[in-house]
Amino acid sequence: MDSVGVAAAPDAGPGPAWQSKCPWGAPNTTSISCSLADVMSEQLAKELQLEEENAAFPEVVAVAEGPFITGENIDTSSDLMLAQMLQMEFDREYDAQLRREEKKINGDSKVSISFENYRKVHPYDSDSSEDEVDWQDTRHDPYRADKPTTTPRRGFIGKGKDITTKHDEVVCGRKNTARMENFAPEFQVGDGIGMDLKLSNQVFNALKQHAYSEERRSARLHEKKEHSTAEKAVDPKTRLLLYKMVNAGMLETITGCISTGKESVVFHAYGGKSAAEDKVIPPECAIKVFKTTLNEFKNRDKYIKDDYRFKDRFSKLNPRKIIRMWAEKEMHNLTRMQNAGIPCPEVVTLKKHVLVMSFIGQDQVPAPKLKDVTLNSEDMKKAYYQILHMMQQLYKECNLVHADLSEYNMLWHDGKVWLIDVSQSVEPTHPHGLEFLFRDCRNVSQFFQKGGVAEVLNERELFNAVSGLNITADNEVDFQAEIEALEKMNEDHVQNHGKKLSMFSSDGDPPIYDE
């Protein structure tokens, strides 16, 4: 190919002086002659591009770690390779700008901001991370307590005026601040070490005592919420049991609390439908929730640990098991009483420590206790003879002693007396069964004597009438001594023979007192 001369624009020619200095005037350029092969040379194009970039962006070139393209062995025939190289160079400039911004914002602040997540350096680019330093590796952590300086045996360090003892105010203050990290996590102490806080011994001891108090208080609240039944509320586990009963259709709805006691909370509910066809749920039910804490009723063990029905399952170290056994004990006792025809609540179901029974009352109004109802002389006499008959039925037919019989555990409904709260009832062969029976007889006799019933037997006569024993003693002290002797004889017999057989001598069946 013949060479072709390429000339620049013709000279503007002579003109006035202001025209040569005008920025909008035509530039005076000299004509450069070169061949077409030189114009098409790629090396020449690269050099011209570098010159233009150096003239237009001097700062950017200074930041970059090298020229745009270096080396003679780089293959530039591929457009993909060129695009990747251009993208990498752009990412380097962008990361350099991020580092400058990060340094400008952070300054000397204790809290640093990092733009690490916004960087665009490629993983195969090793040159971009050579001069970088991770701030987390070199920066001092103000939240980490400095190791306390050890004090020599002589108790001080330094000499002369610079002596410092172990009781120095500044040293003790910093040590107390570092010790605050040993408090419970929920006790907020703040950044005392970063602020070089110095706590006196008095302030530190007060904070320490407060932290321990809050920790114990939090534990008590957690225990009360998770493992106990409060006055008129239930814990989450008990609430879940009640929800399941309602969802299963056994209960229609739970209306509210009707009674509270030392051992349980009683709720009223409307009965639903039973899954078993042969079982009918009463229209109104009473839900007895036994309290899952022993704080209010700590003497349960003496009623249950010597009962041969539950003796092998008794565990004093597990309160929840005791509560479940307590509820199961009341269910079995109510079943015995119901089979004997004694007026008492009918058992519907038992779920752990929740006992569902028939409701003694009407339209959500519970039947009044015998101590709260006013009866005339005829009704009082009728109630007395009914109670005597029920006590004899409990002892002879049900083989039970109520163990807490009083006007507080007897209801008056439909013209007759109903017995409730039989969870503590034991059998007569219990090591303290006769003592419990004598206490019941005393409570019943005293109540009806105050009620004006002339035919009331005293506690000793009533004890012999119910138990059928013929204990002849002139005073109460000798009477109780003979009762204890009978209990001791029965306990020795149990230990020798391993069976619960009554060793009580009686002269036939006791007389049945009925109106």
Structural features:
two-stranded antiparallel sheet; disordered C terminus; 11 strands; innate immunity; 40% helix; Transferase(Phosphotransferase), domain 1; single chain; kinase; transferase; Phosphorylase Kinase, domain 1; immunity; alpha+beta; magnesium; 515 residues
How does this structure look, described?
- It is a single chain.
- This protein has 515 residues and is an alpha+beta fold.
- Among the domains are: 162-229, no CATH class; 233-366, Phosphorylase Kinase, domain 1 (2-Layer Sandwich), CATH 3.30.200.20; 368-501, Transferase(Phosphotransferase) domain 1 (Transferase(Phosphotransferase), domain 1, Orthogonal Bundle).
- The protein has helices at 17-21, 36-39, 42-56, 58-63, 79-106, 135-138, 169-179, 201-227, 236-247, 301-304, 319-339, 377-396, 433-450, 459-467, 476-497; strands at residues 156-157, 164-165, 251-260, 264-271, 284-290, 347-351, 354-358, 361-362, 365-366, 410-413, 416-419.
- The strands form four sheets. It has a five-stranded antiparallel sheet, with helices on both faces.
- A hairpin with a 3-residue loop joins strand 3 (251-260) and strand 4.
- The longest helix has 28 residues, at 79-106.
- 20% of the residues are buried.
- The model is unreliable at 1-13, 60-69, 124-139, 499-503 and 505-515 (pLDDT under 50).
